[in-house]
Design brief:
single chain; 248 residues; mainly beta; Jelly Rolls; 2 domains; 8-stranded antiparallel β-sheet; 21 strands
Length: 248
Protein backbone atom coordinates (compact mmCIF):
# COMPACT_ATOMS: atom_id res chain seq x y z
CA UNK A 1 0.00 0.00 0.00
CA UNK A 2 1.37 3.41 -0.95
CA UNK A 3 1.21 6.45 1.31
CA UNK A 4 -1.50 7.95 -0.91
CA UNK A 5 -3.56 4.76 -0.67
CA UNK A 6 -3.74 5.09 3.13
CA UNK A 7 -5.91 8.20 2.85
CA UNK A 8 -9.52 7.32 3.59
CA UNK A 9 -13.02 8.65 4.10
CA UNK A 10 -15.04 6.37 6.33
CA UNK A 11 -18.23 6.53 8.32
CA UNK A 12 -17.55 9.29 10.84
CA UNK A 13 -13.87 9.81 10.08
CA UNK A 14 -11.17 10.79 7.60
CA UNK A 15 -7.51 9.81 7.37
CA UNK A 16 -5.29 12.31 5.53
CA UNK A 17 -1.65 11.47 4.76
CA UNK A 18 1.07 13.80 3.42
CA UNK A 19 0.60 12.25 -0.03
CA UNK A 20 -3.06 13.36 0.06
CA UNK A 21 -2.28 17.02 0.77
CA UNK A 22 -3.75 19.59 -1.56
CA UNK A 23 -2.26 23.04 -0.86
CA UNK A 24 -4.93 25.73 -0.77
CA UNK A 25 -4.75 29.47 -0.23
CA UNK A 26 -6.34 31.74 2.35
CA UNK A 27 -6.35 35.55 2.05
CA UNK A 28 -4.47 36.18 5.28
CA UNK A 29 -1.55 33.99 4.16
CA UNK A 30 -1.24 35.19 0.56
CA UNK A 31 0.71 32.70 -1.58
CA UNK A 32 1.86 30.60 1.38
CA UNK A 33 0.34 27.10 1.18
CA UNK A 34 -2.40 26.03 3.58
CA UNK A 35 -3.60 22.43 3.80
CA UNK A 36 -7.17 22.31 5.07
CA UNK A 37 -7.04 19.11 7.10
CA UNK A 38 -10.67 19.47 8.15
CA UNK A 39 -13.26 22.26 8.02
CA UNK A 40 -17.00 22.42 8.81
CA UNK A 41 -17.61 21.40 5.20
CA UNK A 42 -16.79 17.92 6.51
CA UNK A 43 -20.03 17.48 8.46
CA UNK A 44 -20.43 17.32 11.38
CA UNK A 45 -17.08 18.97 12.11
CA UNK A 46 -17.31 22.16 14.16
CA UNK A 47 -13.63 23.05 13.73
CA UNK A 48 -11.14 24.01 11.10
CA UNK A 49 -7.66 22.52 11.44
CA UNK A 50 -4.97 23.71 9.04
CA UNK A 51 -1.35 22.90 8.25
CA UNK A 52 0.27 26.22 7.35
CA UNK A 53 3.71 26.64 5.76
CA UNK A 54 5.23 30.09 6.22
CA UNK A 55 8.07 31.37 4.04
CA UNK A 56 11.16 32.70 5.81
CA UNK A 57 10.08 36.12 7.02
CA UNK A 58 6.52 35.39 5.90
CA UNK A 59 3.32 35.39 7.88
CA UNK A 60 -0.18 36.78 8.08
CA UNK A 61 -1.67 40.12 7.47
CA UNK A 62 -2.95 41.71 10.66
CA UNK A 63 -6.45 40.41 11.40
CA UNK A 64 -9.06 39.99 14.10
CA UNK A 65 -10.43 36.56 14.91
CA UNK A 66 -14.00 37.81 15.05
CA UNK A 67 -15.98 35.28 17.08
CA UNK A 68 -13.37 32.54 16.60
CA UNK A 69 -10.78 31.31 19.04
CA UNK A 70 -7.51 29.84 17.74
CA UNK A 71 -4.76 27.48 18.85
CA UNK A 72 -1.30 27.47 17.25
CA UNK A 73 1.23 24.62 17.51
CA UNK A 74 4.63 25.02 15.83
CA UNK A 75 5.97 21.93 14.05
CA UNK A 76 9.15 23.33 12.46
CA UNK A 77 11.08 26.57 12.66
CA UNK A 78 9.99 29.44 14.87
CA UNK A 79 6.91 31.66 14.74
CA UNK A 80 6.35 35.01 16.43
CA UNK A 81 2.78 35.74 17.46
CA UNK A 82 1.95 39.43 17.83
CA UNK A 83 -1.19 39.92 19.90
CA UNK A 84 -0.97 43.62 20.61
CA UNK A 85 1.34 46.36 19.38
CA UNK A 86 3.68 45.72 22.30
CA UNK A 87 3.08 42.01 22.96
CA UNK A 88 5.03 39.40 21.02
CA UNK A 89 5.49 35.74 21.83
CA UNK A 90 8.13 33.74 19.95
CA UNK A 91 7.26 30.06 19.66
CA UNK A 92 9.97 27.55 18.67
CA UNK A 93 9.12 24.05 17.46
CA UNK A 94 6.90 22.52 20.13
CA UNK A 95 5.66 25.93 21.21
CA UNK A 96 1.95 26.70 21.34
CA UNK A 97 -0.41 29.60 21.92
CA UNK A 98 -4.12 30.02 22.55
CA UNK A 99 -5.91 33.19 21.47
CA UNK A 100 -9.47 33.91 22.61
CA UNK A 101 -12.10 35.05 20.14
CA UNK A 102 -12.06 38.65 18.88
CA UNK A 103 -8.29 38.89 19.43
CA UNK A 104 -6.25 40.82 16.89
CA UNK A 105 -3.11 38.91 15.92
CA UNK A 106 -0.32 38.46 13.42
CA UNK A 107 1.97 35.48 12.74
CA UNK A 108 5.49 35.79 11.39
CA UNK A 109 8.24 33.24 10.66
CA UNK A 110 11.86 34.09 11.36
CA UNK A 111 13.78 35.91 8.64
CA UNK A 112 16.31 33.08 8.24
CA UNK A 113 14.10 29.99 8.01
CA UNK A 114 10.59 28.91 7.02
CA UNK A 115 8.17 27.50 9.58
CA UNK A 116 5.26 25.10 9.73
CA UNK A 117 2.45 25.17 12.22
CA UNK A 118 -0.95 23.68 12.93
CA UNK A 119 -3.85 26.05 13.51
CA UNK A 120 -7.12 25.02 15.13
CA UNK A 121 -10.02 27.43 14.68
CA UNK A 122 -13.46 27.19 16.22
CA UNK A 123 -16.30 29.42 17.30
CA UNK A 124 -16.10 30.03 21.03
CA UNK A 125 -19.01 28.60 23.02
CA UNK A 126 -19.42 30.79 26.08
CA UNK A 127 -21.02 29.80 29.36
CA UNK A 128 -23.02 32.17 31.57
CA UNK A 129 -21.18 31.05 34.71
CA UNK A 130 -17.67 31.65 33.36
CA UNK A 131 -15.79 34.52 31.78
CA UNK A 132 -13.99 33.73 28.52
CA UNK A 133 -10.36 32.65 29.02
CA UNK A 134 -7.44 34.91 28.20
CA UNK A 135 -4.51 34.32 25.87
CA UNK A 136 -1.81 31.89 26.95
CA UNK A 137 1.31 30.32 25.49
CA UNK A 138 3.89 27.72 26.40
CA UNK A 139 6.03 24.83 25.19
CA UNK A 140 5.45 21.11 25.14
CA UNK A 141 8.46 20.65 27.45
CA UNK A 142 7.24 23.04 30.15
CA UNK A 143 5.85 20.13 32.14
CA UNK A 144 6.55 16.39 32.13
CA UNK A 145 4.11 13.89 30.69
CA UNK A 146 1.82 12.50 33.39
CA UNK A 147 1.13 8.78 33.83
CA UNK A 148 -2.32 7.34 33.20
CA UNK A 149 -4.04 4.16 34.40
CA UNK A 150 -2.47 2.34 31.43
CA UNK A 151 1.21 1.46 31.89
CA UNK A 152 3.29 2.95 29.08
CA UNK A 153 0.66 5.55 28.15
CA UNK A 154 1.33 9.13 29.29
CA UNK A 155 -0.16 12.50 28.40
CA UNK A 156 0.49 16.24 28.62
CA UNK A 157 -2.35 18.78 28.64
CA UNK A 158 -1.48 22.01 26.80
CA UNK A 159 -4.67 23.84 27.85
CA UNK A 160 -6.19 23.78 31.36
CA UNK A 161 -8.57 20.82 31.33
CA UNK A 162 -9.92 21.71 34.79
CA UNK A 163 -11.14 25.18 33.75
CA UNK A 164 -14.73 25.25 32.38
CA UNK A 165 -14.03 28.58 30.69
CA UNK A 166 -12.21 26.60 27.98
CA UNK A 167 -14.47 24.79 25.53
CA UNK A 168 -11.77 22.58 24.04
CA UNK A 169 -8.60 20.75 25.05
CA UNK A 170 -5.29 20.17 23.27
CA UNK A 171 -3.35 17.16 24.54
CA UNK A 172 -0.18 15.28 23.67
CA UNK A 173 -0.69 11.52 24.09
CA UNK A 174 2.39 9.30 24.13
CA UNK A 175 2.55 5.49 23.91
CA UNK A 176 5.50 3.19 24.46
CA UNK A 177 6.06 0.45 21.83
CA UNK A 178 3.10 -1.90 21.59
CA UNK A 179 1.03 0.06 24.12
CA UNK A 180 -2.46 1.26 23.28
CA UNK A 181 -5.71 2.58 24.66
CA UNK A 182 -7.35 0.05 26.97
CA UNK A 183 -10.72 0.06 25.20
CA UNK A 184 -12.60 1.14 22.12
CA UNK A 185 -14.03 4.55 22.98
CA UNK A 186 -17.42 5.85 21.82
CA UNK A 187 -18.25 9.38 22.99
CA UNK A 188 -19.83 12.70 22.10
CA UNK A 189 -16.57 14.65 21.68
CA UNK A 190 -15.06 15.10 18.22
CA UNK A 191 -11.31 14.86 17.57
CA UNK A 192 -8.70 16.34 15.30
CA UNK A 193 -5.53 14.21 15.60
CA UNK A 194 -2.04 14.91 14.23
CA UNK A 195 0.59 12.17 14.50
CA UNK A 196 3.72 13.88 15.85
CA UNK A 197 5.92 10.78 16.15
CA UNK A 198 5.99 7.08 15.37
CA UNK A 199 3.03 5.09 14.18
CA UNK A 200 0.61 2.32 14.91
CA UNK A 201 -2.88 1.06 14.19
CA UNK A 202 -6.01 3.15 14.62
CA UNK A 203 -9.44 1.55 14.90
CA UNK A 204 -12.05 3.86 13.37
CA UNK A 205 -15.58 2.54 13.26
CA UNK A 206 -15.34 -0.99 11.95
CA UNK A 207 -12.06 -0.32 10.11
CA UNK A 208 -8.37 -0.48 11.00
CA UNK A 209 -5.81 1.95 9.57
CA UNK A 210 -2.03 2.02 9.73
CA UNK A 211 -0.96 5.54 10.70
CA UNK A 212 2.41 7.24 11.00
CA UNK A 213 4.03 10.60 11.72
CA UNK A 214 2.46 13.54 9.82
CA UNK A 215 -0.87 11.75 9.31
CA UNK A 216 -4.09 13.50 10.34
CA UNK A 217 -7.35 11.93 11.49
CA UNK A 218 -10.71 13.60 12.00
CA UNK A 219 -13.13 11.67 14.21
CA UNK A 220 -16.78 12.73 14.41
CA UNK A 221 -18.82 12.41 17.60
CA UNK A 222 -19.63 8.80 18.47
CA UNK A 223 -17.11 7.32 16.01
CA UNK A 224 -15.76 4.14 17.68
CA UNK A 225 -12.02 4.64 18.13
CA UNK A 226 -8.92 3.00 19.55
CA UNK A 227 -5.14 3.10 19.06
CA UNK A 228 -2.16 0.82 19.57
CA UNK A 229 1.43 1.91 18.94
CA UNK A 230 3.62 -0.21 16.69
CA UNK A 231 6.18 -2.50 18.30
CA UNK A 232 9.22 -0.80 16.80
CA UNK A 233 9.09 2.52 18.63
CA UNK A 234 7.04 4.96 20.69
CA UNK A 235 4.17 6.88 19.14
CA UNK A 236 2.70 10.26 19.95
CA UNK A 237 -0.11 12.47 18.71
CA UNK A 238 -1.53 15.93 19.29
CA UNK A 239 -5.25 15.67 20.00
CA UNK A 240 -8.03 18.26 19.82
CA UNK A 241 -11.20 17.51 21.79
CA UNK A 242 -14.18 19.73 22.59
CA UNK A 243 -14.84 19.88 26.36
CA UNK A 244 -17.16 21.29 29.06
CA UNK A 245 -20.08 21.82 26.64
CA UNK A 246 -23.09 19.67 25.79
CA UNK A 247 -23.39 20.42 22.08
CA UNK A 248 -26.53 22.60 22.19
Amino acid sequence: MTDADRGALGHGYTVVTPANHYPSRLPEFGDQPVVKLVTPRMAPSRIGEYLVSLHAGGGTTRRVGAGYERFFYVLDGAVTVRIAASERRTLPAGGFAYLPSDTAYELRAGDDAPARLLIVKRQYEGHAAHDAPGALSGHRDDQPFAPTAVAGFTRRELLPVDDPAFDFAMSLLRFEPGVGLDKIEVHDEEHGLWMTEGGGTYVLGTDEHAVQAEDFIYMAPYCPQGFTASADGPAEYLLYKDTWRDGF
